[in-house]
Amino acid sequence: MAIPVDSSQNDATPLLVWKLSAAEVCERALRKVGAFSINDEAADPDELDETLHWLDMIVAEVTGTRRCYWLTPATVTFDWPAAEQSVVLADQMGSDYPPTGILFPVRAWRVDVVTGLRQAEIELCRRKKYEAKSNLATAGSPEILFIDRLVENQRAYVWPVPSTDDLWQIALEFQTYSRSVLGEQGGEQAGDVPHGFDQTWQLWMVTRLAAEIGDGPVKRLEASTIRDWRTLSAGYLSDLLYTNREKNNRPFQTRRYGG
Fold this sequence. Notes:
By secondary structure, the protein is an alpha+beta fold. Helices cover 31% and strands 17% of the residues. It has a 7-stranded mixed sheet.
């Protein structure tokens, strides 16, 4: 006798791990340190605000010191004016310039204007190497690119400088700054600003955040508890960075099925 099957289950949308907002990450951290009971209707506003500030600092530290694939948008190609030693990136990129600015460049290429094909890769260099050139106005095909990210209007410099007869474009891959989760930009409410991390980072975010706010800002927990949470979060981060590295540089190092 055939067993009836509920065909409606086959059409159901698979459940995914819930992606927490910045405010929800903070609420889980507050709950972990014992400041937000499951019987409470809402977290204390002042404690939530303090926790959001700590989350903002954690996000800035992690994204500012490591390659993060979600902060590396599609490569941007822009015109480089002939005979110009430098350009303001926001002016040349137009709407492709990231609203948070460029944290650091990753790779750059010369692009043929006619064919649209990438030519030789341009070396990214520091200010010292760029300024060490005896004649910064030397004409030729660009070989090195320096980006001054410390000024408000980020500026890029090339050497040699394209001559008046050369029409070049530059293709630039870069990592942007992360957005603040405090809701002070664009009129968004604090905690509602997308933090950019996917679901796989949530356990690390909550554990690391709990270790910070449980060490004095919200609660003063036992030193051993804070130490344990810091150790746990460091282990989570190590695993996540390996995954993040694979997404940035090459496919996962696993053998194909049957290989």
